[in-house]
Every structure is written in C-alpha cells, then in structure tokens.
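Incident log, structure service

09:12 report received: a user says their structure output differs between two submissions of the same chain.
09:20 pulled the input from the user's history:
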Amino acid sequence: MTGDIEVNDRAIVVEGLDEPPRYYLQHGFSYQCHDQSKPHHYRQHGRAPIGWEAEDGPTTA
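09:34 re-ran on a clean worker, output below:
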C-alpha cells in the first residue's frame, strides 16, 4: 500500500491496495473500502453510472 488512508462518512479510502486486502478490510470492519484511483460515484452503485449508453441514442436512466 502507498499513500495516506482516509476514513470518511462513506468509506475507508486507500491507495495501492489490491482488491483481496480491501475486501478483507471491508468485511472485517463492515465498512466500504475503496481504492483512491478507482473513485465511486456519490449516491450511485459503486463505480457504475446510473443508466447506460444506448447503442443508438443518449444515456438511459
């Protein structure tokens, strides 16, 4: 792991920690653990935007 650790009202945010150790922390503390380089969208499901790009049109929500 590199960099600082941030604990906020939504998650533990770390830098340079692979998914298995983050998964361990997340389930051990019952609190989300995110990688700083892969930010999650506020009030959305993880890193996925709500909706999707249609093949022939605008984003659908």
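09:41 both user submissions now match this output. Likely a transient worker issue. Closing.
09:42 reviewer note: DSSP finds one helix and five strands in the chain. The beta strands are 6-7, 12-14, 33-35, 52-53, 59-60.
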